Every structure is written in C-alpha cells, then in structure tokens.
Amino acid sequence: METLRWENGTLHLLDQTLLPHEVSYLALNDYREVIRAIRRLSVRGAPAIGAAAAYAVVLAAMEAAQGDAEDFAARLQKAAEEIGAARPTAVNLRWAVARQHAVVERLAGEPPEKVVAELVREAAAIFAADVAANRTMGAYGAALLPREARVLTHCNAGALATCGYGTALGVIRAAHAAGKIRMVYADETRPLLQGARLTVFELQQDGIPVTLITDSMAGYLMAKKGLDAVIVGADRIAANGDVANKIGTYSLAVLARHHGVPFYVTAPFSTIDPEAPDGAGIPIEERDADEVTHLGGVPVAPAGTAVWNPAFDVTPHNLVTAIITERGVYYPPYRFGA
Amino acid sequence: METLRWENGTLHLLDQTLLPHEVSYLALNDYREVIRAIRRLSVRGAPAIGAAAAYAVVLAAMEAAQGDAEDFAARLQKAAEEIGAARPTAVNLRWAVARQHAVVERLAGEPPEKVVAELVREAAAIFAADVAANRTMGAYGAALLPREARVLTHCNAGALATCGYGTALGVIRAAHAAGKIRMVYADETRPLLQGARLTVFELQQDGIPVTLITDSMAGYLMAKKGLDAVIVGADRIAANGDVANKIGTYSLAVLARHHGVPFYVTAPFSTIDPEAPDGAGIPIEERDADEVTHLGGVPVAPAGTAVWNPAFDVTPHNLVTAIITERGVYYPPYRFGA
C-alpha cells in the first residue's frame, strides 16, 4: 500500500485517518491542501511528512509559475515557509523544504518550468532515498535482535509513516524475513491509536505475528512476559542523541531501562537536527483536547474536561541503547558528524 | 451520588458503564443479576464490589428462604460460592462473602427470616464501615502531601469505587479540603476509561481541579511538569506489600521511582490478603479482546486483531512508598499483622 504517489501533477495521499476501515486516497493539486492533510494527520510519520512536503513545494511552484515570472521565486519562497510551518516537531518537514529551497536557489533565473521539473525530480529522489534508507536500517537493526525476538513498538513507524518499508517496522520486517521474530507487541498509542489502526494493520498484511496492547500494559508486559527490545521511530533527534517521538515513547524508555530491555530508535539521518543541541531545543506540538476527550467523534469524558495533550515527548539520550540510521548504528556517547 | 443503595429488599446499583453521560440505577432483586453487574463492571472498584457482594448474599438468602428450611444453608452456601467467584482479582469480594458466611454459621439452625435480617444488618455495617474507613484514610493520606500538591491518579478509586468518599480520591478530597491540591492529573485508564469517565466526573462535581491525560503521558508529565505524588487504590494487597491494581499501575510505579515521586497506595485493610504471601499468588483477570479493539462498540483495530488484555497488574512492594489504610500508614518493610 502506497503512502503517497505523484502522478501527472497530482499528489495522491493515502488518508490514514480512515485506516484500517477504508483505503482511500486524497488527490491534491494545491499545496494548501497538503498542509491541511499534514495538520489533520491524513499523512503522518516524520519521513512521510517530509516527502509530502517536498511535493507540496512542487505544487506551490506550479502555482507560482502561472503568474509573473519576476515574482516566481518570491511567491514560491512564501509558500515554502507556510509548508515548513505545517507542524512543528518533525524536523524532516523543514529538511525536505530546505532541500527543495536549495534546488530553487541553484536554478535562480532559470525559467519556472525548468525549476518545477527539477523540484519534481528532487521530490522523487527524496522519496526513493527514503525507501532505500529504510531497507538499509532494517538490515542494520535486524542484526541487533536475538532469535525468537519479542519486540514492542509504539505508534506507527512503518511503511505508512515513510515512503515505504518503514523505520522501526522496517527493522521488524527485516528481522521477520530473517526468521527472528517471535512476537511483535503493538502499543495502541492513544490518543489517535496509530498503533491499533496502522501498525497492527501493516503487520497483519505482511503476516507478521502481532499482539495489540493498551499503552498502560507495556510495563507489565516487560515484567510478566519478558521482552527483547523496544523499537521506535523518531520525529527529531537532537545533536546529543535526545529523541523526540510520539507521546509515550519516554515512558517506554524508562520502563525498558528498569527491566534491562534494549531501547532502539530507528530513523533516517535527516531526522537528526544539528541545530538542536539537546531535547530542550525541540518544539513539542500540543494538540486539541478533543483528541483525548473524544474517540471517533464520540465523547468519552464529561463536557468541559481540561486536557494536556502533547503529541510528542523527549527521551534523553542516556535512555537510548542505540540509534539506527542508514549510515550505521550509533551508540552512546552520540556524535553524528555532518 | 450513591454507588449503591439497599431499599426494601432491592439493591439499587448505579450503572457505571453509562457514566458520565447517563446517571441510571439498576434495580436488582436476584443475586445472579448482581453477579452479572459485577462482571460487566456496572459496579467496579474493590470496596464497592465487596458491598455489592454482601447484598448479593442477602438476595440469595431471601431466595433460599422461599424453599425448604432444611436446605436453606446449603442453597445459600452454593449461591455464596457463585458470588465469590464473580471476578477473581479483588479480594474484597471474597472477604465480604466470608463475612456474610460467618453470619450464617453463627445463626445455624435459626429461622431463615432471622438469618436474612442479620445479613442485611451485616451488609449495612460493611457499607457504613467502608465510608468511615475512607474518611480516615483521607485524613492520613492528606497529611502526607505537601502544599500546592500536583498529584496523579489512575483509574477510579473514588466514591464510585467504594461506598462513598473514595480511597485514592478520598485522600485527594481530604487534601483539597485542607487547601493542599494544586492539580489532580487523571490517567484516562484504557481500556475502559474509568479515569476519563469516572474520576474526572467525580472531581468536577466536587470542584477539584483536574486535568485529563492519556496513560502514555504520565512519564512525560513527571519529567516536564513535575509531580508531587502518585496516589492509587488497590484490588488486592499481598502480605508482603505487593499490590494488585488496575492495569497500568505498575508502569506508574516504575515511572514514579525513576523520577523520585512518592507512590502511595490507599485501600481499606480488607484489601490485604494474608493468604497471598506475595503478588505471584494473586490471580490476574484477563478480559475480552473487544475491550481493547473496540471503543463504545466501534472497532478501532482491524478485524481479527490478537490482544493481551490483563485487567490488573502487580506492583512489587519495593516500588510502593507507603500503604494508607484506616488502621494507619504502613511503610516498608510491610508487616500488616492480623
């Protein structure tokens, strides 16, 4: 199942809010629609957001190319800034927009049609490189797991969160292909249930054994059933190895440490933000109370309930056993280089 | 709001599955209906289950009294065993049935009407003693909290889980009355959302400040906002201080230890099971997959999803800062006496 596909000037985006009940694609021709799709989580997962943003810049360039050629670059720049601000935490969004910006800079003065064509090529390159990176990470990560591995993952860091294969689920896919997976436990991942809706769905489709638990069961799972690894993705990694990822990741890291379970983070190198020296420099998005007080539009809490709803948390580097990237596996103390 | 009320031979039981949207009482005249209500969690919370079970024995005795007087005790005994087996983890259920059994033994040979009358009196005594115990625990627990306390609670150990006032929420009520509560954070408590549905509801009604979070946010809450105490109830406490309570309690205890936050358990002395030397001796109920895969009847996971759904977990005594009972506050090493 494709997360996104570019075809004849249209971005086809799998609407992940409808999964697993409905497989439906949005056909987007306006970069503003892509921003809305990112905000409402039709597309989510840091690498997938990055690729969607790269194509959003293409759509913005196509629109800017309709107008006065003189203002092309300025109009495009303004749109690119809007795209880069769609959500605050995942750095891949900003990174993809910056890659497209570099294309525009390189081609300054060239006709808009040529710039558009190059932006399409760059977006496709970002897309293809992401899939390749995931396969590489999968191989690196699978090598770290024992045979008969019982692993726990949180949220969805799968094919659906990327351009294909997945980061954390890429490791699980590669380990399963090598006959090493006994059971994958999937945290349901409240509030938006990406674990229950997306991770279980992906693994079921691939015939990988998966058991769903609520987020509150992870600690007891480790104590009672035993666990060989926690494997998660990342939305942004600071220069010191602090990891911003889906809310609940930090709790898992503490629990893993308490139980002596390795805690692995899997993410493409583009997730590392050299401008954030540590986790304190990573902005954490707080989302609407409705995500917690309602489920599928149905209220589960009394009217007027006050809510704290951070979408992400920060796991300090000292709780992270290793960070798996396409450039290799990093261990503490984390030094990523350029 | 009353959790349960006995009136003219009928047990009126607040149907907690409908809260907070609907306040509705079941009128039960058959002990089998009480068992069903306990199983489907219309009444839940160890002390409330205990009181409901005591009245279920009354209903069973009323039924047994209709038949042959000779078989009265045998028929009642059989029904009491069914009642005691309604759910496995909360020991208060067994304890209340044992208290009623002692009444029947004491009055062996007396006319059934007299036994029924004494069972009603005993059930009322259990009910009244629970409310009094909660107020005592509230005072003991409140004394342990600092001023401007930020506390986190899990599930619902409130008036609704007891015969009134609550255990963990009793401590919070007493602390609030003493002007010591800055904020109560309530874990929503998946799968059945007793935190969102019941705890938020109870605290709102009392004007106590409460903020709802998903279970996965507790760790980040401790790290980011700071917390002064975790306060939970218990379904069974082993002789060594190991605590069985709602699934997710164990994760909170590990997180509290990591962050240096005191972890308090509040429960009436009847929750202590001298026959369970440690937590390994406490049976943990596993409930239907539907509770996790569905929410309000709506599926949130793909069809055929495998689930692990333990309703409780066990927190080892070494993670418990203190156990607050109506007989006083116990500290490690836990020795409860008789």
Question: Would you mind describing this structure in some detail?
Answer:
The first copy, chain A, is globular. Chain A has helices at 31-39, 46-64, 72-84, 91-106, 112-142, 168-177, 194-205, 218-224, 249-259, 290-293, and strands at 4-7, 10-14, 25-28, 149-153, 181-187, 210-213, 229-232, 236-238, 243-246, 263-266, 272-273, 294-295, 298-299, 306-307, 312-315, 322-325, 328-330. Chain A folds into two domains: 4-134, Four Helix Bundle (Hemerythrin (Met), subunit A) (Up-down Bundle); 145-330, Rossmann fold (3-Layer(aba) Sandwich), CATH 3.40.50. In chain A, the strands form four sheets. Chain A has a seven-stranded mixed sheet. In chain A, strands 11-8-9-15 form a four-stranded mixed sheet, with helices on one face. With 338 residues, the first copy, chain A, is α/β, with parallel strands linked by helices. The two termini of chain A are 34 Å apart. In chain A, helix 5 (112-142) packs across helix 6. In chain A, a hairpin with a 4-residue loop joins strand 8 (236-238) and strand 9 (243-246). In chain A, 58% of the residues are buried.
Brief digest:
Chain A has 10 helices and 17 strands. Chain A has 338 residues and is of the alpha/beta class. In chain A, strand 1 (4-7) and strand 2 (10-14) form a beta hairpin.
Key attributes of the depicted protein:
homodimer; about 350 residues; alpha/beta; Four Helix Bundle (Hemerythrin (Met), subunit A); Rossmann fold; 7-stranded mixed β-sheet; 10 helices; 17 strands
